[in-house]
Amino acid sequence: MTLGRTGERDLACENTPEAADERRRLSTLDLVGLAAGGVVGSGWLLAAGPAFWGLGADAIWGWVAGGALMLLIAAVMVELGIAVPKTGGLIFLPLQAAGPLVATVVAAGLWIVYAANPASEAAAMVRGLAYKYPWLLENGDRLAKAGELGGSVARPYDLSNSGLLCAVAFLALIMAVNLLPQRRLIRLNLVVTVVKVLIPVLIVVCLWRYALDTAHSCVPKDVWYLSGQEGTKAALQARAGHPKAQDFLYMVLGGSIIYAYIGFQAPLDFAGNVKRRGRGEAARLRWAVYGTLVGAFVLYTALQWIFGGLCGELTGNMLASPYAQFATALSGMWLVWLIRLNAVLSPMGSGIVFTHALTREVAALSRAHLTHRGLQTARRASFRFRGAEIDAFWMILLVNFTIGLVMLLLVKGSWEDLVALNSVPALVVYAMPGVVLVALKPPGFPGARRVLHLVLSSTAFVAIAVVIHEAGWGKVWRGMAAVAVGSALLLCLPLLARLDLPFLGRLLRRYDARDHVSRIARPDDPAVRPVLLFLTHLAVLVLCTGLRDALDEHFRDVGLVTLPVAALSAAVLFPLLVRACRRYMAAVPPTLPGPRREPEPGAAVTAGT
């Protein structure tokens, strides 16, 4: 199998169209802005309390476990982005390696993740204002004195009707910002990212010396009202800080720790638009992704340590940010106002990054005819403003706004429910790049590098299966159901449009996408085996998680059986998936951009420019 190559380019002449294209490409700073802008959202603001209640002093290890998992997944995705640099590659590459059926399942998961994120960030922005306007939340008055109640507040962060309207306005603002020209949007995002990262750094710098004094600390049962669980005060205090070994990974995902790391892949969504001169594309991608994850890990663990050291200053008010309460008690109002500003700015910045990345991924989906082809045509992708042509994919933004609006209304703006719709589908999407990387066997990499690809990819595939299993039935069934519904819509809408049914046929008459679902009825089709194996993998995870939930009350150690089954199933299915993908590519050779040669050590990369 030979991959299609884009060819080497001569960038020596500054006046060539290629030199102009190079100036439009993303620099290392731009990529870091995308990665950090996607990662640093609402997770750090809202996850420390539940993590401390559940894990106590071990909460820091929860962030370590989440960071290690994300670094493992990132290593696989970065290697794939370097080997096959393609904008929109999270959908395009599974399409080329495994066929349209697998690509549709991955696309459904990715669309849900990227559309749910702006909705969750809009809900988080409303929560950031609730300290001043408690009527934005359904239970605002009770949350203001949560520490004095006899039990937790059921669905504490459901938005009121006014809060929902405010969240919709914030969601519309996020979409509107993405109508800016790409270069201006990237620069704006960089400025927002610098501000929203600097503020939590200031929190650590200004409060660390107070955290050293144990007089300001507390024990996990003191923050029972931040648990995110339902129950009486006594019951939640009894469970606080005593996690079982099998519950640790549940707290990592269920406590929104994984959610706080999601977003690092934003530079990989634009892997085909990275500057090539100087340090090269590969080094820029590595710096952006690895640097962001390591920086986020250091920042998140420091913030968790600050929380554990100062939680004795909490007032029992769930409307105010814990860090704002610490600053009020110990530092100064200037830091309080910065934290309150960041409670709105930080989620908005993350939502902007995810929305911008989604337009490119959906455009790739549309170009492959896996969804309506008209979403990325020139008439629906660009518009003229003050004489300039702006490529903003406005139709995709409108569709994504509608999806986000539906999600907000279905869960009444609950940030926790939106996170559940985000985390599990994200892990489903993250599982496939490793299969693609090993199946492609990209040229230009030595044998040792390919062995590394195999080890990283298979380990990440099994690790993702273990984390999904430990996420808990409530989150798994919601996330998997969302992926199933999204996949069914993408697969069945072309078939329904072709059938021209009464009423529905009139609505779908202009829907222009290829019908791939009918291929499932042809077992000899090379695209069928990969999707059946991938769906089997997901079904085993759902079954194991469901059995654990159903039998746990009667058999407390049932997880010790279902967990190895989930891990073993993933270990067995991974090579089968790789083999099925190679069989597909043997029948349908892929056309892919090849890796560009990285500069030799000591070579004058910019010579002659």
Query: Termini, distance in Å?
Result: 36 Å
Shape: globular
Largest sheet: 2 strands, antiparallel
Helix content: 55-70%
Name the average pLDDT. 83
Instruction: Name the helix and strand elements from N-terminus to C-terminus, one letter apiece.
Output: HHHHHHHHHHHHHHHHHHEEHHHHHHH
Tally of alpha and pi helices: 25
Q: Which structural class is indicated by helix and strand composition?
A: mainly alpha
Protein name: APC family permease
Pfam families: AA_permease_2
InterPro entries: AA/rel_permease1, AA_Transporter_AGT
Keywords: Membrane, Transmembrane, Transmembrane helix
Describe this structure in words.
Residues 1-13, 15-22 and 598-609 have low confidence and may be disordered. Helix 2 packs across helix 10 (182-211), helix 6 packs parallel to helix 17 and helix 7 (100-129) crosses helix 22. This protein has helices at residues 17-24, 28-39, 43-46, 48-55, 59-83, 89-98, 100-129, 140-143, 161-177, 182-211, 233-239, 248-254, 257-261, 266-269, 280-310, 322-330, 333-367, 378-381, 394-410, 415-440, 447-470, 473-499, 504-508, 528-551, 559-587, and strands at residues 382-385, 388-391. It is an all-alpha fold. It has a two-stranded antiparallel ribbon.
